[in-house]
Amino acid sequence: MSDLTVVAIGASAGGVQSVKDLVAMLPPHFPAAVLVVIHFPPTGISVLADILNRAGPLPAVEAVDGERLKPGRIYTGVPDRHLMVEDGVIRLSRGPRENHCRPAIDALFRSVAHAIGPRSIGVVLSGTLNDGTAGLIEIKKLGGCAVVQDPKTALFREMPRSAIQAVSVDYVLPLHDMARVLEQIVQELDSPEHDRVSHVASTAMEGTVMTPDHKSADDRVIAAILKSR
């Protein structure tokens, strides 16, 4: 198993804004590699890396097959390829679609679980249907940590709800708490006295949940490119 910690983030509908908000709050010296899959159409060009590069302090790049993962960097999936990890190296695969998608969140989570084991952290954000649930189960089975956006704060609640119902989730959090908790998890994994105890932290956000009509400017800009199911 790798000594590198990997945070694998999956989102679908409403996911661009969710991921953007999350990475904006990560610290500039975040000691883990961050991999992001949002459902793309099979053709076109993704501008997700550019959006995330502007959003926060961590550099974001489009994933390249064969590139070795580095901490403190964000890697985004590409259209019509599964984003996967093997021996600390990025693999882009044209394997079968999962949940009608390529890239699929389950493919990312499953590969990270097997490559990274207990140093893997799976994060499920806004989205429809259940992509990410099966992969999150695999992360937990191999000793990793499961973090899910509080459905009450998600633009689309089905993916978070599916994960919570099927997985022994460690944390259920609104986005404004998630970056801080992810940093704490990574610090605990790096600590020699590490003895993480799984628990569920559910925090409700007060106020009105956004509707699909309240998409951000970035969501609108790439609507023709990043189509969610």
Provide the β-strand percentage band.
15-25%
Question: Structural class, judged by helices and strands?
Answer: alpha/beta
> Helical segment tally?
7
Low-confidence stretches: 195-229
Q: Span from first to last CA?
A: 34 Å
Extended strand count:
9
Salient structural properties:
single chain, 229 residues, alpha/beta, 7-stranded parallel β-sheet, two-stranded antiparallel sheet, 7 helices, disordered C terminus
Question: What's the helix and strand layout?
Answer:
Blueprint: E1 6-11, H1 15-24, E2 33-38, H2 48-55, E3 60-62, E4 74-76, E5 82-86, E6 89-93, H3 105-116, E7 120-124, H4 133-141, E8 145-149, H5 158-166, E9 171-173, H6 175-190, H7 217-221
Parallel strand pairs: 1-2, 1-7, 2-4, 3-4, 7-8, 8-9
Antiparallel strand pairs: 5-6
Helix pairs in contact: 1-2, 1-6, 3-4, 4-5
General description of the model:
This protein is of the alpha/beta class and 229 residues long. The protein is 30% helix and 18% strand. It is built from 7 helices and 9 strands, in the order E-H-E-H-E-E-E-E-H-E-H-E-H-E-H-H. It has helices spanning 15-24, 48-55, 105-116, 133-141, 158-166, 175-190, 217-221; strands at 6-11, 33-38, 60-62, 74-76, 82-86, 89-93, 120-124, 145-149, 171-173. It has a 7-stranded parallel sheet, sandwiched between helices. Helix 5 links the parallel strand 8 (145-149) and strand 9. Helix 1 (15-24) runs parallel beside helix 2, helix 1 (15-24) packs across helix 6 and helix 3 (105-116) packs parallel to helix 4. The longest helix is centred in the last third of the chain and has 16 residues, at 175-190. The model is unreliable at 195-229 (pLDDT under 50).
